[in-house]
Amino acid sequence: MSRFQVKKVAVLGAGVMGAQIAAHLVNVKVPVVLFDLPAKEGPKNGIVTKAVEGLKKLKPSPLGVADDAALIGQANYEEHLEQLRDCDLIIEAIAERMDWKLDLYKKIAPFVAPHAIVASNTSGLSITKLSEALPESIKPRFCGIHFFNPPRYMVLVELINTPTTSPEVLDQLEAFVTSGLGKGVVRAHDTPNFVANRVGIAGMLATMKEVENFGLSFDVVDDLTGKKLGRASSGTFRTADVVGLDTMAHVIKTLQDNLDENSDPFYASFGTPAVLKKLLELGNLGQKAKAGFYKKVGRDVLRFDLESEEYVPGGQKADEVYGRMLKKPAAERLRLLRNSEGAQGRFLWAILRNSFHYAAVHLATIADNARDVDQAMRWGFGMKQGPFELWQEAGWLDVAKMIQEDIDAGKALSKAPLPEWVFKGPVAEAGGVHTAQGSWSASAQKFIARRALPVYERQHFPEKLLGETSLPEFTTAGTTLHEDDAIRVWTLEGADRAPGTGVVIASIKTKMHAISPDVAEGLTLAVDLAEKDYEGMVIWSGDEPFSAGADLQAMLPAFMVAGVSAIEGAEAELQNTMLRIRYANVPVVAAVRGLALGGGCELAVHSARRVVHMESYIGLVEVGVGLVPGAGGLTYIARRAAENAATSTGKDILPFLTEGFTAAAMAKVGTSAIESRKLGYVLESDVIVPHKDELLYVAINEAKSLAKGGWRAPAKRLFPVAGRSGIATIKGSLVNMRDGGFISQHDFHIAGLIAEVVCGGDVDAGTLVSEEYLMTLERKAFCALIEHPKTQERILGMLSTGKPVRN
Ligand code: NAD
């Protein structure tokens, strides 16, 4: 079979999901055409046009940059079906009605290209039944592709095959969804609601049932079932409000309609909870209706009280003792909760027990193996651990016995016993379902290894589950060249590496990967090592963020003892590190993911290339703590302006400086890799990577290909600055902002200093300067500010509360 290439995708249905899926395709640079029904009035593409416009306003933003909405092709089924012929993948995301979907399939079938994959985003309809309407020729190329809302941010995509889906087609689609869209694929069986929603919604219903049993209030439950429990911070009821209670009701109805006592022994607990029924009746559908389980009135969050049908004061927190119990090691935690005196503790044990019980009873039917269940819960429901992982961590057989005791005592939601494999055979012997050989398949009664598709070779360190001990750990993998508390310098190259080849990896180890003087020293050492014997270097961390900035806390002791001169020395060191990276004899590639703020941003922009995960947040945010970027950030802005000006016919630098100046003075952060490109922190020549686990692979290859292309460090040259006239112009507009009350006096002062640095100080426009000269200005401004009481107030505020102080 020839290589499957996705040159163009059609998305059918411009509703909540279809429009956002189209937006995500634009984010990852896949041409897309979005279809919907022809509008009854006005232009025929009216429905799609409205949906595309809506994307620009939606929060969180489905688009990397809002203007890219224009890249979504617009079409309708009356005029444009011919366009389907060019599409390699057709994703159907129309309303959840079997008859409507089948009608549409009949309509499009004649236009589907002979190689194209057709996939439905249905949340719960049978994929096999949907496939039956298709011609025989399309059936092997049809499957389910279940995205989660919001599709840009939710990692999970479930792929569901039918008995007639060709295995190669599913593998091809998995490769595209993983590498091309950056998603985590779970293969689900064609059972009602598939894996994540089946386990997740059953879990929510079970939670609501236990809330009734234990008589707890929503706010306490949300406090208990959010972050403290290792789940999405919105807890149970606020999550339901965010999802929409009508959508919840829809998914619950799918469970109710498609299952019964025989197919699901927990069926009796799937009744729509009384409170949900009442809220639906009242039209209080959650966040979109501004009222649901909760209602915000002014600054207060009220909660719904079923008895009075009124909103009453909320905000109650759980008893602190349970917060402490939830921090204990897993085995102790579960035992403490189960034996606790209070209702809140026993409630927590009950919902965890229910989740273990449910997952074990259904494993054989809903998924190929336990890995798919745990990954689905991590990626689809934002849990830190899936049910099997937690159970395994807490001690497999001990927990199994506790669950069975509760079942026997009639405390569980179903009398169904735990399956035999829980107590006897390989799982019991291995102490859990995830092992070095693979994860337990209850249907095949053996451990199944991860799928070995070529796409996964791009993931050096795939996100692993507890118990998957055969997968490498980024903290110990490869060969360590140097390691201390601040940094690990290492390589993935084998012992057979020819001298002068291969790549050195520098992984920062500090909290939030903050850049302390030790980190700076370690980075310099990594460059030394790379130059000596390798062809390139990559700055990469196995976990987020890339770096939250310079480590102010680490600088404080020196400041206390030796005052500002100590800080000036540390800043100079940091600047030297940045220049060392920029002018290294080998290409240094920054692999950015998550936050790259302040010093983190400066590290990225001084690298030869950036390989950036889509979901990266990059910016010079020093103003927030009353400082200016002091490790080359402003020098970078001045240099970039001069470089860009050099490509134009005019001589004036200032117009090219405005964007960079504003970004630094307003502490703007690019909220996606694409937006950071607009701010000038990511360049056209950089690479944006959709999947976080492919970052290292791409970065290493980028470093190697730069080296093989004959990498030379950039020439060290002088460049022109905007000078005193530039400063005057910028300060003129700053005065207006201050006098208009848009910025504080201290903001005005800092922005003025930024203007002075990026314009090169008190010199004529067009004066040629060096990076070192600008860095000296930058350092002086930084040090002047650090002695300023208002800046000190901002720094102390940030260090103590983590929030910016406005003064
Ligand atoms: P929606 O109601 O927002 O949009 C449905 C779209 O289908 C509308 O644009 C409508 O014009 C179009 N449509 C309606 N009737 C049609 C017909 N007869 N023929 C062709 N088009 C028609 O729905 P949604 O929430 O985007 O859901 C779409 C699909 O995605 C459903 O199958 C749903 O189960 C699934 N899904 C939804 C979510 C979610 O959170 N909303 C999550 C995952 C999957």
Task: Give the arrangement of secondary structure elements.
Layout: E1 9-12, H1 16-27, E2 32-36, H2 46-57, E3 72-76, E4 89-92, H3 98-108, E5 117-120, H4 127-131, E6 142-147, E7 156-160, H5 167-180, E8 184-188, H6 196-214, H7 218-225, H8 237-243, H9 245-258, H10 274-281, E9 294-297, E10 300-305, E11 310-313, H11 320-325, H12 330-339, H13 343-366, H14 370-381, H15 387-393, H16 396-408, H17 420-423, H18 426-430, E12 439-441, E13 446-448, E14 479-483, E15 487-491, E16 503-508, H19 517-533, E17 536-539, H20 552-562, H21 564-582, E18 588-597, H22 599-605, E19 609-619, H23 633-646, H24 654-665, E20 669-670, H25 673-678, E21 687-689, H26 695-708, E22 719-720, H27 723-739, H28 745-758, E23 768-769, H29 771-786, H30 789-801
Parallel strand pairs: 1-2, 1-4, 2-3, 4-5, 5-6, 7-8, 16-17, 17-18, 18-19, 19-21
Antiparallel strand pairs: 6-7, 9-10, 10-11, 12-13, 14-15, 15-16, 19-20, 22-23
Helix pairs in contact: 1-2, 6-9, 6-13, 6-14, 12-13, 19-21, 20-21, 21-29, 23-24, 23-29, 24-28, 27-28, 28-29
The structure holds nicotinamide-adenine-dinucleotide (NAD).
Residues 13-18, 36-37, 47, 93-96, 100, 104, 121-123, 147, 149, 247 line the site of nicotinamide-adenine-dinucleotide (NAD).
EC number: 1.1.1.35
Pathway: Lipid metabolism; fatty acid beta-oxidation
Domain 3-hydroxyacyl-CoA dehydrogenase NAD binding: 8-190
